[in-house]
Design a protein that fits this description.
Six copies of one chain form a homohexamer.
Chain A: E1 3-9, H1 15-33, E2 41-47, E3 52-54, E4 57-58, H2 59-64
Parallel strand pairs in A: 1-2
Antiparallel strand pairs in A: 3-4
Chain lengths: ~70, ~70, ~70, ~70, ~70, ~70
């Protein structure tokens, strides 16, 4: 506790970036809520670009159009 | 806002079907709740058939039995 | 199967609107993916306006500013 | 996009703390992944202390024991 | 790790039942996957009966009809 | 209903273990809450070891250190 889930599109997120996301999210709940980092879990979901939609369109199509 | 998550088994969902799911889910919250489509996000999760269970059984096993 | 989760801010969504969201989301996966409506589940989460953020701000604050 | 969900126990999280969580989580994905803050959503779930378990025990019971 | 989420309709689940769900779910991943119970988290979500749908209908309506 | 989601790291979970998780989780809600197994869904998510963090570190790094 806490449990943090970060969902982003699957676009070559590096291992170093994942380390930064996990360190940063953990630090955030430690600083703001005084939570114990030992029991703070973070899960990163990388969603395929054909599986995320916004504005009623596929993200992969919006990206091609540079919208 | 809103955020909609659609979980289905991973059985060859086509890109066109994903477009229809995203367009349809977005239209639904626009029509029913008058939400802004610009900020409506839809994420589709395709779950492997060995990772979904119902009736206490693996979906992949039920499917073979044509249940 | 499928399982659909709709997250919206908690702003007086009526029972009738919930019925429409559930009927519409179910119909969507039936039409697009030929899924069985009998086993299609929809869960609506109404998130307090102080618990949703976008653009780095609380939704409740953005709403007051009419952004 | 991205979508971040923070689950914590429901223990008097203040509005100011929620603002800090949302600002911090948004800044994190902007800095690490160069994401657009305009479309970054954060949802905070406050879970009742009787509904969170760890070590096979209720959090509310562990808390009483000061574990 | 692991993280288990149990979603049920909000129908007077008692504290004792919650204890049993959390103990049982934890024991399950310990026995089947040899996971560490110390770091196993379980979150129970009680969903209002007007917010869960199946067969395209509200659960609260199906319940009244004894379906 | 209910809907149960089990998240574990992706470390060679076998099909037989998945069957046991699904059977066990279903039995749990049947026994404790008297739920109908016919409509109980279980989804297992296997999270890549580089995408799970605890104590502010990547699980894959902690594992190497045998922490």
């Amino acid at each position: 506790m806490p449990y943090i889930n970060i969902k982003v599109t699957d676009e070559q997120v590096t291992k170093e970036q994942k380390q930064q996301l996990i360190a940063g999210a953990t630090q955030l709940v430690v600083e703001v809520l005084n939570k114990n980092p030992e029991t703070t879990h973070v899960v990163i979901d990388e969603v395929p670009v054909d599986n995320w939609g916004v504005k009623g369109k596929l993200y992969s199509d919006l990206k091609k159009l540079n919208v």
